[in-house]
Amino acid sequence: MSIAVVINNLNHSYGLRPVLNDISVSIFQEDFFIIIGPNGSGKTTLMKILAGIEPFQKGRVDILEKPVRHYTKKSLAKIIAFVPQTFSIDFPYTVKEMVLMGRYPHQGMLGIENEKDRSIAKEAMTITGVEDLADRKLDQISGGERQRVTIARAICQEPRIILMDEPTASLDLSHQIRIMDLMEQLKTEKGITIVMVSHDVNLAAMYADRLLILKNGHIVGAGRPAEVLNYDILEKTYGCTIIVDESPLGKVPRVSPVPLKFIKASRKRNGHFAEKQPDPEDGIPPR
User: How far apart are CA 211 and CA 224, in angstroms?
Assistant: First the structure.
């Protein structure tokens, strides 16, 4: 299987504060690769480094077998599209104008779109379901719709890799599933490698081909969801009591954090719920 991204001994700091420590991982082409971990674990910084936005201090990052530092911004934008968690609306562009901005890496010095650009933009809007919003202003549509517009702009770049920083944050359940299904569709039908940061462990379990778990800038786990989403790793990562069992949807881990009131109630009934060791067979703390 071909490799899209290779990260080798990556280290990065903000001043004297280390943010990423000896990160080494490979991301395969046409994978849905999801990065999870608590706040402040370095997830967004890693995404910005992959996008060429944030320079790093030590190590190596290769994109399609070429060091990221050897790309110009425009040449990297032909390969990688970055979808941030939020974006500011400094000017009331229409949806169509925003999506067409994705054609910038493929345009000449004047940046004037042609018929091909408009055709690709129309297809991107159709794929993301925002074609009916083409003439609406960005400040006139919902947050979920704006998120789909930014994804349409990314698709319009015709990238081989899409980086997404928490694209489902602040969205309701319906919009979360739509975004995740869309990413799965892009991976399957267009062969695009998807690299996503997420705080939703269960969404990650259902969609990811492979997961990277970070804590305090260190790798805590890396591999397929069934390999890394277990009690030991998740308790170490998040520092709370967690139950891991099998989802009713199939052989997918299901992660349930245990509220303190249930822990207290269980201790009264059965003893020390939180302190007992988990069952190694299924990752569920014994009751």
Answer: 6
> 127-165 in b/e burial notation, b at 16+ Cβ within 10 A?
bbebbebbebebeebeebbbbbbbbbbbbbbbbbbbbbb
Residues 66 and 61: their CA atoms lie apart, in Å, by: 8
What mean pLDDT comes out for the span 277-284? 46
Which tokens hold the place of 115? Answer: 């018929």
Secondary structure (H, E, C), 154-218 = HHHCCCCEEEEECCCCCCCHHHHHHHHHHHHHHHHHHCCEEEEECCCHHHHHHHCCEEEEEECCE
The pTM assigned to this predicted structure is: 0.88
- The band of 175, judged by pLDDT with boundaries at 50, 70 and 90, is confident
Site of tokens 């979360």: 176
